[in-house]
Design a protein that fits this description.
Largest sheet of chain B: 9 strands, mixed
Strand content of chain B: 15-25%
Radius of gyration of chain A: 35 Å
Number of helices of chain A: 27
Order of helices and strands of chain B: HEHEEHEEEEEEHHHHHH
Distance between the termini of chain A: 35 Å
Distance between the termini of chain B: 39 Å
Helix content of chain B: 40-55%
Shape of chain B: globular
Number of strands of chain A: 22
Helix content of chain A: 40-55%
Shape of chain A: flat
Largest interface: A-B, 43 and 36 residues
Oligomer: heterodimer
Number of helices of chain B: 9
Low-confidence stretches of chain A: 694-699
Structural class of chain A: alpha+beta
Mean pLDDT of chain A: 92
Chain lengths: 699, 302
């Protein structure tokens, strides 16, 4: 067993959002350097904190041994003249390689004889490899935002201060971004300032823990969760869960501690959402849930577990109380005018310079909500609620609270409508209509909310595509892809009878909408773990290029899920094989028939004499309707088990019947017609040929 | 520690670390960054260290002297170190210790906060410094100014000295800050100014007059920059820079008055930015023609 390799890069405070990605990137680059050099190694682990990114690779070889390298030049026939002297081509190669032409020899290879030479490549130690090969890829690491400092030569996420490079207990000498490596790391900035020698790579995590740095994010997160739970319990409740906030805070501190702050219970009169968001948004703090609702307390996280003078608590309370006062001020101001009255102000808020104001968008949303309600055949009060909610949905954009907390858009509108005494179905729909906000979030809880949510997104997609704002590459400034994902989720989870073709029609065939929805749906399904082959088998583009686009999205998912579950259980190999043969024969036969027609073939009567053909025909006549009925009922288990019964009759047909009979074109016509009918049944729901043979392409 | 002792102490601290102690610029500005000793000196290759207190006017933040935290005008203490030294975070923390802040009794954190000034064509990367959850300073490595990529890089430290003073004295209202040791408060010195300037900026500033002034200053600065270096009359960079500052302040008042539509607002920002970039170019050309005097001086001393 070789010793582990440790690389730590110490720097000024890294933005929280870049730490996890930075650590993973450093790990990938270090492993690539080892692999490229041919250095054997075991698995790697990476960690990151506010002031450091680190990677440890187990069992790393001490170096690469001496080797002999063969360098091949032009073919021997071209490189050597009569008598074996190098030709100009041979001499030119030697010159380029920096060797004497007389050193060229004839080297036999599998592809022929070449001019060439061998040279000794001296072995290198791990330290030599890393000193040369590691600094450039580390300096080239990509961060969401990087910077220059000092004389401006280096660019990285933040100025680099130290590098630890250890192989076991030995220091490897290298220089990264202006910092010379050693064994000295740095502890917590205040609790244990100064250099910390790392004795060996194995002891890294423990050595840092001793100086108040938890370098492992999982350990920090666990300590944080535990601290929040204990602190909340002390205050008589439990923390209001917020995994995203927990993730962020985990990367804001190296030695997490929790302080409990308190505020005037009168603030609890504010709507819960506003209170929780104020604490989260402005102070990255958690609310505390008591037995009967929120408690007048909050939990803030500090980069220290001590607060001897109570300063940390007081400082956080001071800021929180100021922010809660602001929130209360906005809530009171916003309540002064009914939300419905604010709709008029939307004409002053620009949505997009080519698409007018939010008043224009709201009226487009209304129209769309009406069309969707009609498509879903919603009854009279329900469809009016959809239109009314769409009309009011954007009005909260002109409230002070949404100005302060953009992430509460929709929610504030719903709360204000509720306070104004609006129809609960309408206020709920407005409250929910930005959902799902992420892949983890749920869709709106009511049908009306879903209609408004889909109307809003379809208008966003249609109108922005219409003015040339389609997403390109990694750029999607208006979030059109996310909008499409939201539409797919709602349509599928509500099991709406809505297909790609319906979405395109609802967006009035906006430029590029068809291609956009098709591509987005493919990507979305692949992201859900379906493979490219499974998708192709359900899309059946070789069978029909349009049928798939008219299938309800929910039905597509049902088919994909069925296919995925049945693939492991059913041996499709023979069926795939026969389907391919049927398809091939049909293609060839049709070509032959066309040719015969060109040469004056006149169709005549043909009575099938072959029993195997008559049997297949009878079998198909009996089985096909059954498959069609099962398909209509989406009973795919029956469909597939019925399809597998085709294997024997088709195999027997191919064994005994000649389809391509040049002497009897009438038989070719009749038998091809039969095979085409069979083929259309075989590919009715799935084109299982797409699953044949190849390994699945996973994303 | 009272307000003026804090101010004197922080000046002493940075004077001892080789900074020129400058005085506030005598034209209205929204931030210490606009002072020519920051905005211009960070351009080009010459080293520079400066510290000063800059009263900063933000008409939109005026609250008629009624809000315990927000004011029309506040004091920024500004430090520029060019090139940024590798120990600048420690220098900054030492300055806090010098005011009697013991880092072991507090939670001091550097949280990502990047800075951008569209009007100055400037951008930087850095942090807000939080003490016990409160923002007390901005810490910025300038990457661009006047539309130019910078090299070497300057680091800018901006202390919110009212905040720090309120914290040190455990005071909840900015106007209660003791200004000196003889019973004079921040409110005694500044409250009337807050009331009157809020009334003026929000309600009374003559929009037509401010618009006309904006046009005139833009023209005037443009006239001074239309000249060619080496010819007579020569470009006048510093007066042109004042034109930028004037335009910026006039724009801020028009904005606080609610006199600008969204598109008009963007157009005004663009106009100021264009002027600021021209000033930056003219400044670098002028310093280059003079042989970058501070670069020579630095070489002579080392």
């Amino acid at each position: 067993m070789n010793p582990p390799l440790l690389i730590e890069i110490g720097c000024e405070e890294i933005p929280a959002r870049m730490i996890a990605a930075g650590a993973a990137d450093l790990e990938a680059r270090l492993v690539a350097v080892l692999d490229n050099a041919g250095l054997p190694h075991g698995p790697a682990t990476s960690w990151g904190g506010t002031r450091r990114l680190a990677v440890r690779v187990l069992n790393v070889g001490k170096g690469v041994p001496d080797a002999v390298e063969t360098v091949l030049g032009p073919p021997a026939a071209a490189a050597f003249g009569a008598g074996g002297a190098p030709t100009p081509a041979g001499a030119g190669f030697a010159k380029k390689q920096g060797i004497d032409p007389s050193a060229l020899t004839r080297i036999e290879t599998e592809k022929g004889v070449y001019a060439g030479f061998t040279r000794a490549v001296p072995g290198r130690t791990l330290g030599q490899v890393l000193a040369g090969a590691l600094p450039p890829p580390v300096a080239a690491m990509s961060f969401a935002k990087s910077m220059r400092w000092g004389d401006g030569t280096h660019r990285w996420v933040r100025p680099v201060h130290w590098v630890v490079a250890l192989h076991g207990a030995s220091v490897l000498d290298l220089e990264i971004l202006g910092a010379r490596s050693g064994r000295a790391s740095d502890g917590h900035r205040f609790l244990a300032p100064g250099l910390v020698p790392i004795e060996n790579a194995d002891a890294y995590v423990e050595a840092l823990r001793a100086v108040h740095v938890l370098v492992d994010p999982a350990e920090r997160r666990a300590k944080l969760e535990d601290g929040l739970r204990r602190a909340a319990k002390g205050a008589g409740g439990a923390p209001v869960a917020d995994p995203a906030l927990l993730d962020e805070i985990t990367n804001l501190v190296e030695w997490p501690g929790v302080v409990v702050g308190r505020f005037d219970p009168a603030f609890l009169d504010l709507p819960r959402e506003i209170l929780v968001t104020t604490l989260k948004h402005h102070q990255k703090s958690f609310s505390v849930e008591g037995p009967e609702g929120l408690l007048p307390a909050f939990l803030s996280v500090a980069n220290t577990d001590r607060d001897p003078g109570g300063h940390v608590r007081r400082g956080n309370e001071w800021v929180v109380i100021g922010r809660l006062e602001d929130a209360r001020f906005f809530w009171k101001e916003d309540r002064k005018v009914p939300l419905a009255v604010r709709v008029a102000d939307l004409s002053k808020v620009t949505y997009h310079k080519k698409l007018g104001s939010y008043a224009d968008k709201s009226s487009r949303n209304e129209t769309l909500a009406r069309s969707i309600a009609e498509h879903l055949k919603l009854g009279s009060p329900e469809s009016e609620r959809c239109v009314e909610a769409a009309r009011l949905a954007k009005a909260d954009l002109v409230t002070g609270l949404v100005g302060e907390f953009p992430e509460l858009q929709g929610i504030v509108g719903g709360l204000l409508l509720h306070a104004d005494g609006a129809d609960p179905a309408v206020s709920r729909a407005v409250y929910d209509h930005y959902r799902p906000a992420s892949a983890e979030d749920a869709i709106p809880s009511t049908e009306v909310g879903c209609v408004v949510a889909v109307a809003d997104r379809l208008d966003t997609i249609a109108s922005l595509l219409g003015v040339g704002e389609a997403p390109t590459g990694s750029r999607d400034p208006f979030g059109l892809r996310r909008a499409a994902n939201g539409v797919f989720r709602i349509v599928i989870e509500r099991r709406w009878a809505m297909a790609i073709s319906d979405l395109v029609r609802l967006t009035h065939d906006a430029a590029g909408a068809f291609v956009f929805f098709r591509e987005r749906l493919d990507n979305w399904l692949l992201d859900r773990g379906f493979t490219a082959n499974e998708l192709a088998a359900v899309q059946r583009r070789k069978v029909s290029d349009t049928a798939f686009d008219a299938w309800a999205l929910a039905d597509i998912v049902v088919r994909l899920e069925f296919l995925r579950s049945t693939r492991a259980l059913t041996d499709f190999a023979r069926l795939v094989d026969l389907t391919k043969r049927v398809d091939n024969i049909c293609t060839q036969a049709n070509a032959a028939i066309l040719k015969a027609v060109d040469s004056g073939f006149e169709p005549g009567r043909f009575d099938e004499p072959e029993p195997a053909a008559r049997e297949l025909e009878a079998f198909h006549a009996k089985t096909a309707p059954r498959i069609r009925r099962a398909s209509d009922a989406q009973d795919f288990t029956t469909v597939v088990s019925a399809l597998t019964t085709y294997v024997e009759p088709i195999a027997s047909f191919f064994e005994h019947v000649l389809v391509l009979d040049p002497k009897n074109v009438d038989s070719t016509v009749a038998r091809t017609a039969l095979l085409e009918q069979v083929n259309s049944t075989l590919t009715l729901d799935f084109d299982i040929r797409e699953l044949a043979g190849q390994a699945d392409i996973k994303r | 520690m009272n307000f003026q002792d804090l101010l004197l102490g922080i000046q002493r601290f940075w004077a001892d670390r080789g900074c020129v102690i400058q005085q506030p610029y005598d034209v209205e500005v929204g931030a210490g960054t606009m002072h020519p000793d920051t905005f211009l000196r960070v351009l080009g290759p010459e080293p520079w260290r400066v510290a000063y207190c800059q009263p900063s006017r933000r008409p939109g933040d005026g609250r008629f002297g009624d809000n315990p935290m927000r004011v029309y005008k506040h004091f920024q203490f500004q430090v520029i170190l060019k090139p940024s030294p590798l120990d600048v975070q420690q220098l900054y923390l030492d300055s806090l210790t010098a005011f009697g802040i013991d880092p072991l009794e507090h939670d001091i954190r550097f949280e990502e906060d990047n800075w951008e000034s569209p009007t100055l064509g400037a951008a930087g990367v850095g942090w807000q410094v939080l003490m016990d959850g409160m923002e007390i300073s901005q810490f910025t490595y300038f990457q661009q100014a006047g539309g130019r990529e910078l090299s070497p890089i300057s680091v800018e430290l901006t202390y919110g000295i009212e905040r720090i003073c309120m914290f040190l004295n455990d005071i909840k209202n900015i106007f209660d800050i003791p200004w000196n040791a003889h019973g004079i408060t921040y409110g005694d010195v500044r409250h009337r100014e807050e009331v009157e300037h809020s009334i003026y900026s929000f309600r009374e500033a003559d929009v037509g007059f401010f618009r006309a002034q904006f046009e005139r200053w833009e023209e005037e600065a443009g006239r001074l920059l239309d000249r060619v270096l080496g010819e007579t009359p020569a470009p006048l960079v510093l007066p042109a820079h004042e034109g930028v500052l004037k335009c910026s302040h006039l724009f801020n008042v028009l904005d606080a008055r609610g006199a600008l539509s969204v598109t008009e607002r963007a157009a005004f920002i663009q106009r100021i930015r264009r002027l600021a970039c021209r000033v930056a170019d003219a400044y670098v050309a002028q310093r280059e023609a003079a042989g970058f005097p501070l670069l020579r001086a630095a070489k002579a001393t080392t």
